[in-house]
Amino acid sequence: MASGSVTGEAAAGGRRVVTRFAPSPTGYLHIGGARTALFNWLFARHHGGTYLLRIEDTDRARSTEPAIAAIFDGLEWLGLAGDEPAVFQFARSDRHAQVAHALLEAGHAYRCYLTQEELAARRECAQAERKPFRIESEWRDAGPDRWPADQPYVVRIKAPREGETVIDDQVQGTVTVRNEEIDDFVILRSDGTPTYMLAVVVDDHDMGVTHVIRGDDHLNNAFRQLVIIRAMHAIEGGWPDPVYAHVPLIHGSDGAKLSKRHGALGVDSYRDEMGILPEALFNYLLRLGWGHGDDEIISREQAVAWFDIAHVGKSPSRFDLAKLQNLNGHYLREADDTALAGLVAARMAGPVDHGLLTRAMPVLKVRAKDLNELAAGAAFLFAQRPLAMDDKAAALLTDDARDLLARIAAILRPLSDWTAVELEASLKQAAADWGLGLGKLAQPLRAALTGQTTSPGIFDVLDLLGRDESLARISAQAVPAEHA
């Protein structure tokens, strides 16, 4: 257990801490969902508890197998896989219905025969009178003797009508709602299927969830869900209120709710398209709404040791792509070169010498911010002759520069020790002998060797390409075209 943490039982009032992440599989793993998963994972780890996954796939029309696979894949990549096999909500529909019938039989719920047309008319009337629409069903207290035969009905919970419900939210603080504002909401549809509100409560109970850590867009749901929880506790006991922590949503850099116009929303886009490392995204999401003093670089081990809900901010966090990329640059520089070369190789076209790529990583990753930049920076190592030139590099290869390349080739060809150190010494001496600054040699050399005007240090480039390839590339550009 992390130093300084309290036991899972103490954090959960005598129960072992159990958290859950419960995404709906209707698309990719959203960046906001990934942060919710991270906070649940960290809270459970910090308290020596259990972190569970639940796939809320009751929306059969929109839930897809590819989306489920994408969620698992993204969580695995971030190191946030569940401690136990995931629970699939749809498969538990019979259990949800069982609880609905228990509530019905105990008088905490009722059959409601109001039709959609009747509800629509009442809603329109409330709007016309500029009043909030509340379900006032005449079926709330109707007994079996009044139930119409062979007519469809829904099952509604009997929400309390007096007093208030108070939630001591671990992020939002004390939040109070008057019970008269809570509708008699539907828990079982007319076709016998459970609603989301019921399924969530039953699953959380059956999974032993002690702490519900989720987005603050669910805060209103908590008051409705407590109606079910407390009714079931009255029936059979053993249904304690969970500890709630409703985390503010993530906003874009402009302060608006995060959307596609702010850039990538799915974790897979940051990995596949943007070349972000999981360690960097983990660290960035951790600092997005939570902090530990002025610490910016926080390892997984430190995160587990330090994380608490008390330091989650109440205000929405702003997603800053530039900060993520800078953080990613740090993790690239810290990464193992062999592992990093493997990631970069997967982004490169054509055959790649993994040994050479690994050897090049220390000089390539110095300024790179993502795997794509690394792959682009490494491309010159495996380019085939004749070397393609970008416009800026081609502009450097004037007749004078080509003549200079011929003289450089003559200096380098006799070297017995082709190392960065020896190459630097020889070229510095040549520059001094010719009365030129070293940059005058490096610019045409870089163009001839890489086809670009930016690259790692020129001596590292020569060393990595090796004698034969370096001299071949220099020689290819050493004579003006009209003299070739």
Automatic annotation (TrEMBL):
<keyword id="KW-0030">Aminoacyl-tRNA synthetase</keyword>
<dbReference type="GO" id="GO:0004818">
    <property type="term" value="F:glutamate-tRNA ligase activity"/>
</dbReference>
<dbReference type="InterPro" id="IPR001412">
    <property type="entry name" value="aa-tRNA-synth_I_CS"/>
</dbReference>
<keyword id="KW-0067">ATP-binding</keyword>
<dbReference type="InterPro" id="IPR004527">
    <property type="entry name" value="Glu-tRNA-ligase_bac/mito"/>
</dbReference>
<comment type="subunit">
    <text>Monomer.</text>
</comment>
<keyword id="KW-0963">Cytoplasm</keyword>
<feature type="domain" description="Aminoacyl-tRNA synthetase class I anticodon-binding">
    <location>
        <begin position="349"/>
        <end position="476"/>
    </location>
</feature>
<feature type="short sequence motif" description="'HIGH' region">
    <location>
        <begin position="23"/>
        <end position="33"/>
    </location>
</feature>
<dbReference type="InterPro" id="IPR033910">
    <property type="entry name" value="GluRS_core"/>
</dbReference>
<dbReference type="InterPro" id="IPR020751">
    <property type="entry name" value="aa-tRNA-synth_I_codon-bd_sub2"/>
</dbReference>
<feature type="domain" description="Glutamyl/glutaminyl-tRNA synthetase class Ib catalytic">
    <location>
        <begin position="17"/>
        <end position="325"/>
    </location>
</feature>
<dbReference type="InterPro" id="IPR000924">
    <property type="entry name" value="Glu/Gln-tRNA-synth"/>
</dbReference>
<comment type="similarity">
    <text>Belongs to the class-I aminoacyl-tRNA synthetase family. Glutamate--tRNA ligase type 1 subfamily.</text>
</comment>
<dbReference type="GO" id="GO:0000049">
    <property type="term" value="F:tRNA binding"/>
</dbReference>
<protein>
    <recommendedName>
        <fullName>Glutamate--tRNA ligase</fullName>
        <ecNumber>6.1.1.17</ecNumber>
    </recommendedName>
</protein>
<dbReference type="InterPro" id="IPR014729">
    <property type="entry name" value="Rossmann-like_a/b/a_fold"/>
</dbReference>
<dbReference type="Pfam" id="PF00749">
    <property type="entry name" value="tRNA-synt_1c"/>
</dbReference>
<dbReference type="InterPro" id="IPR045462">
    <property type="entry name" value="aa-tRNA-synth_I_cd-bd"/>
</dbReference>
<dbReference type="GO" id="GO:0008270">
    <property type="term" value="F:zinc ion binding"/>
</dbReference>
<dbReference type="Pfam" id="PF19269">
    <property type="entry name" value="Anticodon_2"/>
</dbReference>
<keyword id="KW-0648">Protein biosynthesis</keyword>
<dbReference type="InterPro" id="IPR008925">
    <property type="entry name" value="aa_tRNA-synth_I_cd-bd_sf"/>
</dbReference>
<dbReference type="InterPro" id="IPR020058">
    <property type="entry name" value="Glu/Gln-tRNA-synth_Ib_cat-dom"/>
</dbReference>
<dbReference type="GO" id="GO:0005524">
    <property type="term" value="F:ATP binding"/>
</dbReference>
<keyword id="KW-0436">Ligase</keyword>
<feature type="short sequence motif" description="'KMSKS' region">
    <location>
        <begin position="257"/>
        <end position="261"/>
    </location>
</feature>
<dbReference type="InterPro" id="IPR049940">
    <property type="entry name" value="GluQ/Sye"/>
</dbReference>
<dbReference type="GO" id="GO:0005829">
    <property type="term" value="C:cytosol"/>
</dbReference>
<dbReference type="GO" id="GO:0006424">
    <property type="term" value="P:glutamyl-tRNA aminoacylation"/>
</dbReference>
<feature type="binding site">
    <location>
        <position position="260"/>
    </location>
    <ligand>
        <name>ATP</name>
    </ligand>
</feature>
<comment type="function">
    <text>Catalyzes the attachment of glutamate to tRNA(Glu) in a two-step reaction: glutamate is first activated by ATP to form Glu-AMP and then transferred to the acceptor end of tRNA(Glu).</text>
</comment>
<keyword id="KW-0547">Nucleotide-binding</keyword>
